[in-house]
Amino acid sequence: MRVFRNTAFVLGWIILTLVLGLLGLPFLPFSRPITVKISWVWTKATLIWLKLTTGISVEVRGREHIPIEPAIFALKHQAAFETLLLNQLLRDPAVVLKRELLRIPVFGWYLRAVGMIAIERSAGAGAMKSMVTQARQAVASGRPIAIFPEGTRGAVGARLPYHPGVAALYSQLAIPLVPVALNSGLYWGPGLFGKRAGRVIIDILPPIPPGLERRSAIQQLEARIEEQTTRLIAEGQEKCTAQ
After folding, report:
1. E-assigned strands of 68-176?
2. What's the total number of domains in the chain?
3. Neighbour count for residue 41 (Cβ, 10 Å)
4. Residues 6 or more apart whose Cβ sits within 8 Å of residue 176
5. Residue 187: inside a domain
6. How far apart are the C-alpha atoms of 193 and 81, rounded to whole Å?
7. How big is the CA angle at 99 (ends 143 and 205), to the nearest 5 degrees?
8. What gap in Å lies between CA 97 and CA 231, rounded to an integer?
9. pLDDT at residue 220, rounded to an integer
Protein backbone atom coordinates (compact mmCIF):
# COMPACT_ATOMS: atom_id res chain seq x y z
CA MET A 1 0.00 0.00 0.00
CA ARG A 2 2.82 2.41 0.89
CA VAL A 3 4.51 1.81 -2.47
CA PHE A 4 1.21 2.39 -4.27
CA ARG A 5 0.53 5.66 -2.38
CA ASN A 6 4.06 6.93 -3.02
CA THR A 7 3.80 6.04 -6.71
CA ALA A 8 0.49 7.88 -6.98
CA PHE A 9 2.07 10.98 -5.45
CA VAL A 10 5.06 10.95 -7.79
CA LEU A 11 2.97 10.44 -10.94
CA GLY A 12 0.45 13.10 -9.96
CA TRP A 13 3.20 15.52 -9.01
CA ILE A 14 4.95 15.06 -12.37
CA ILE A 15 1.71 15.78 -14.24
CA LEU A 16 0.96 18.81 -12.05
CA THR A 17 4.47 20.18 -12.55
CA LEU A 18 4.38 19.74 -16.32
CA VAL A 19 0.94 21.33 -16.71
CA LEU A 20 1.57 24.37 -14.51
CA GLY A 21 5.14 24.74 -15.71
CA LEU A 22 4.12 24.84 -19.36
CA LEU A 23 1.15 27.12 -18.74
CA GLY A 24 3.38 29.64 -17.03
CA LEU A 25 6.24 29.67 -19.54
CA PRO A 26 4.89 32.61 -21.61
CA PHE A 27 4.85 34.81 -18.49
CA LEU A 28 8.40 34.09 -17.30
CA PRO A 29 10.14 36.95 -19.12
CA PHE A 30 7.39 39.52 -18.60
CA SER A 31 5.43 39.17 -15.36
CA ARG A 32 7.07 38.32 -12.07
CA PRO A 33 3.77 38.63 -10.09
CA ILE A 34 2.11 36.00 -12.30
CA THR A 35 5.16 33.75 -12.04
CA VAL A 36 5.14 34.07 -8.24
CA LYS A 37 1.43 33.20 -8.19
CA ILE A 38 1.96 30.13 -10.36
CA SER A 39 4.76 29.00 -8.05
CA TRP A 40 2.44 29.45 -5.06
CA VAL A 41 -0.31 27.43 -6.73
CA TRP A 42 2.19 24.69 -7.59
CA THR A 43 3.43 24.31 -4.00
CA LYS A 44 -0.11 24.51 -2.59
CA ALA A 45 -1.40 21.85 -5.00
CA THR A 46 1.65 19.67 -4.32
CA LEU A 47 1.05 19.74 -0.57
CA ILE A 48 -2.64 18.93 -1.01
CA TRP A 49 -1.82 16.02 -3.32
CA LEU A 50 0.87 14.85 -0.89
CA LYS A 51 -1.67 14.67 1.93
CA LEU A 52 -4.27 12.89 -0.20
CA THR A 53 -1.86 10.25 -1.48
CA THR A 54 0.70 9.66 1.27
CA GLY A 55 -1.12 10.98 4.35
CA ILE A 56 1.56 13.56 5.15
CA SER A 57 0.04 16.70 6.66
CA VAL A 58 1.58 19.73 8.33
CA GLU A 59 1.17 21.62 11.58
CA VAL A 60 2.74 25.06 11.81
CA ARG A 61 3.43 26.39 15.30
CA GLY A 62 4.61 29.84 16.28
CA ARG A 63 3.17 31.90 13.44
CA GLU A 64 2.95 34.74 15.94
CA HIS A 65 6.76 34.88 15.87
CA ILE A 66 6.87 35.89 12.19
CA PRO A 67 7.97 39.55 12.16
CA ILE A 68 5.97 42.09 10.17
CA GLU A 69 9.15 43.49 8.67
CA PRO A 70 11.56 41.40 6.53
CA ALA A 71 13.59 38.87 8.50
CA ILE A 72 16.01 36.01 7.98
CA PHE A 73 14.39 32.60 8.52
CA ALA A 74 16.95 29.89 9.31
CA LEU A 75 15.50 26.39 8.96
CA LYS A 76 16.64 22.93 9.92
CA HIS A 77 16.85 20.87 6.72
CA GLN A 78 15.78 17.21 6.78
CA ALA A 79 13.77 16.77 3.58
CA ALA A 80 12.51 18.42 0.41
CA PHE A 81 9.24 18.99 2.27
CA GLU A 82 10.36 22.26 3.87
CA THR A 83 11.45 23.68 0.52
CA LEU A 84 7.88 23.15 -0.72
CA LEU A 85 6.37 24.62 2.42
CA LEU A 86 8.41 27.84 2.36
CA ASN A 87 6.26 29.36 -0.36
CA GLN A 88 3.17 28.74 1.79
CA LEU A 89 4.73 29.71 5.10
CA LEU A 90 6.23 33.05 4.02
CA ARG A 91 5.11 35.73 1.59
CA ASP A 92 7.31 35.68 -1.51
CA PRO A 93 10.49 34.41 0.21
CA ALA A 94 13.94 34.81 -1.32
CA VAL A 95 15.54 31.42 -0.66
CA VAL A 96 19.30 30.91 -0.60
CA LEU A 97 20.11 27.97 -2.88
CA LYS A 98 22.93 26.52 -4.94
CA ARG A 99 23.31 27.99 -8.44
CA GLU A 100 23.26 24.54 -10.07
CA LEU A 101 19.50 24.42 -9.50
CA LEU A 102 19.02 27.29 -11.96
CA ARG A 103 20.31 25.03 -14.73
CA ILE A 104 17.44 22.55 -14.40
CA PRO A 105 15.08 23.00 -17.38
CA VAL A 106 11.75 24.70 -16.52
CA PHE A 107 12.21 24.34 -12.74
CA GLY A 108 15.40 26.40 -12.81
CA TRP A 109 13.80 29.00 -15.07
CA TYR A 110 11.10 29.58 -12.47
CA LEU A 111 13.66 29.86 -9.66
CA ARG A 112 15.48 32.54 -11.63
CA ALA A 113 12.27 34.37 -12.59
CA VAL A 114 10.95 34.67 -9.02
CA GLY A 115 14.32 35.97 -7.77
CA MET A 116 15.86 33.31 -5.56
CA ILE A 117 19.31 33.94 -4.08
CA ALA A 118 21.60 31.67 -6.08
CA ILE A 119 25.20 31.18 -4.98
CA GLU A 120 28.18 29.39 -6.49
CA ARG A 121 29.46 27.50 -3.46
CA SER A 122 32.90 26.95 -4.97
CA ALA A 123 33.43 30.72 -5.32
CA GLY A 124 34.47 31.19 -1.66
CA ALA A 125 34.40 34.80 -0.47
CA GLY A 126 32.89 35.88 -3.78
CA ALA A 127 29.89 33.65 -3.15
CA MET A 128 29.36 35.23 0.27
CA LYS A 129 29.53 38.74 -1.17
CA SER A 130 27.10 37.87 -3.95
CA MET A 131 24.68 36.28 -1.46
CA VAL A 132 24.63 39.37 0.75
CA THR A 133 24.15 41.68 -2.25
CA GLN A 134 21.21 39.64 -3.54
CA ALA A 135 19.72 39.45 -0.05
CA ARG A 136 19.94 43.24 0.36
CA GLN A 137 17.97 43.68 -2.85
CA ALA A 138 15.31 41.23 -1.69
CA VAL A 139 14.97 42.92 1.71
CA ALA A 140 14.74 46.34 0.05
CA SER A 141 11.68 45.08 -1.84
CA GLY A 142 10.09 43.82 1.38
CA ARG A 143 10.81 40.10 0.94
CA PRO A 144 11.87 37.73 3.75
CA ILE A 145 15.07 35.69 3.39
CA ALA A 146 15.13 31.92 3.95
CA ILE A 147 18.30 29.91 4.42
CA PHE A 148 19.26 26.40 5.52
CA PRO A 149 22.27 27.04 7.79
CA GLU A 150 23.63 23.50 7.41
CA GLY A 151 23.77 23.92 3.64
CA THR A 152 22.41 20.44 2.95
CA ARG A 153 19.84 17.94 4.14
CA GLY A 154 20.73 15.84 7.16
CA ALA A 155 19.28 12.59 8.46
CA VAL A 156 16.84 12.62 11.37
CA GLY A 157 18.86 13.26 14.52
CA ALA A 158 21.96 14.42 12.61
CA ARG A 159 23.64 17.59 13.77
CA LEU A 160 25.64 19.12 10.94
CA PRO A 161 27.91 22.18 11.23
CA TYR A 162 26.30 25.56 10.55
CA HIS A 163 27.93 27.33 7.61
CA PRO A 164 29.05 30.99 7.83
CA GLY A 165 26.44 32.21 5.32
CA VAL A 166 23.73 32.73 7.93
CA ALA A 167 26.17 34.66 10.12
CA ALA A 168 27.08 36.92 7.20
CA LEU A 169 23.43 37.66 6.48
CA TYR A 170 22.71 38.41 10.14
CA SER A 171 25.62 40.78 10.59
CA GLN A 172 25.25 42.56 7.23
CA LEU A 173 21.48 42.94 6.94
CA ALA A 174 20.73 43.97 10.54
CA ILE A 175 17.26 42.39 10.58
CA PRO A 176 15.74 39.76 12.92
CA LEU A 177 16.95 36.17 12.68
CA VAL A 178 14.17 33.62 13.13
CA PRO A 179 15.05 29.99 14.06
CA VAL A 180 12.78 27.30 12.59
CA ALA A 181 12.79 23.71 13.91
CA LEU A 182 11.01 20.74 12.30
CA ASN A 183 10.71 16.97 12.11
CA SER A 184 9.96 16.44 8.40
CA GLY A 185 12.56 13.68 8.04
CA LEU A 186 10.39 11.32 10.08
CA TYR A 187 7.83 11.19 7.27
CA TRP A 188 9.64 12.28 4.10
CA GLY A 189 12.48 9.79 3.79
CA PRO A 190 15.03 9.37 0.99
CA GLY A 191 14.08 7.89 -2.36
CA LEU A 192 10.81 7.81 -4.28
CA PHE A 193 9.11 5.51 -1.78
CA GLY A 194 10.42 6.99 1.46
CA LYS A 195 7.26 8.88 2.42
CA ARG A 196 4.91 7.65 5.14
CA ALA A 197 1.80 9.04 6.75
CA GLY A 198 2.18 11.47 9.64
CA ARG A 199 2.04 15.09 10.71
CA VAL A 200 5.11 17.19 10.01
CA ILE A 201 5.56 19.86 12.67
CA ILE A 202 7.17 23.17 11.73
CA ASP A 203 7.95 25.32 14.79
CA ILE A 204 8.79 29.00 14.25
CA LEU A 205 10.71 30.14 17.32
CA PRO A 206 11.04 33.66 18.80
CA PRO A 207 13.31 35.89 16.69
CA ILE A 208 16.86 36.75 17.65
CA PRO A 209 16.98 40.56 17.47
CA PRO A 210 19.51 42.32 15.23
CA GLY A 211 22.60 43.94 16.69
CA LEU A 212 23.94 41.10 18.83
CA GLU A 213 27.54 39.99 18.62
CA ARG A 214 27.76 37.71 15.59
CA ARG A 215 29.11 34.60 17.29
CA SER A 216 26.67 34.87 20.18
CA ALA A 217 23.71 35.20 17.81
CA ILE A 218 24.67 32.13 15.79
CA GLN A 219 25.29 30.10 18.93
CA GLN A 220 21.79 31.01 20.09
CA LEU A 221 20.39 30.12 16.68
CA GLU A 222 22.00 26.69 16.61
CA ALA A 223 21.08 25.88 20.20
CA ARG A 224 17.42 26.83 19.72
CA ILE A 225 17.00 24.98 16.42
CA GLU A 226 18.74 21.82 17.53
CA GLU A 227 17.09 21.60 20.96
CA GLN A 228 13.58 22.14 19.59
CA THR A 229 14.18 19.81 16.65
CA THR A 230 15.16 17.08 19.10
CA ARG A 231 11.88 17.64 20.98
CA LEU A 232 9.83 17.56 17.78
CA ILE A 233 11.49 14.33 16.65
CA ALA A 234 10.73 12.73 20.01
CA GLU A 235 7.13 13.94 19.81
CA GLY A 236 6.73 12.48 16.32
CA GLN A 237 8.30 9.17 17.31
CA GLU A 238 5.94 8.87 20.28
CA LYS A 239 2.94 9.35 17.99
CA CYS A 240 4.28 6.75 15.57
CA THR A 241 4.72 4.27 18.42
CA ALA A 242 1.22 4.98 19.75
CA GLN A 243 -0.23 4.24 16.33
Report:
1. 72-75, 94-98, 117-119, 145-147
2. 1
3. 15
4. 67, 69, 71, 72, 207, 208, 209, 210
5. yes
6. 14
7. 40
8. 27
9. 97
Question: What domain range includes position 69?
Answer: 56-242
Question: pTM score, two decimals?
Answer: 0.93
C-alpha 138: how far from chain center: 16
Classify residue 8: in a domain, yes or no: no
pLDDT tens by residue, 48-71: 999 999 999 999 999 999 999 999
The single-letter DSSP state of residue 116 is -
In the chain, the largest separation of any two C-alpha atoms, in whole Å, equals 52
Report the CATH number that the domain containing residue 186 is assigned in CATH.
3.40.1130.10
In the chain, the amino acid numbered 170 is: Y
Q: How many C-beta atoms surround the C-beta of residue 202 within 10 A?
A: 23
Whole-number pLDDT of residue 117: 94
Q: Does a structural domain hold residue 213?
A: yes
Q: Amino acid identity, residue 51?
A: K
Q: What is the pLDDT of residue 133?
A: 95
Question: Residue 46 domain-assigned?
Answer: no
User: pLDDT by residue (tens digit) across 20-43?
Assistant: 998 888 888 788 999 999 999 999
- C-alpha 72/C-alpha 94 separation (Å) is 10
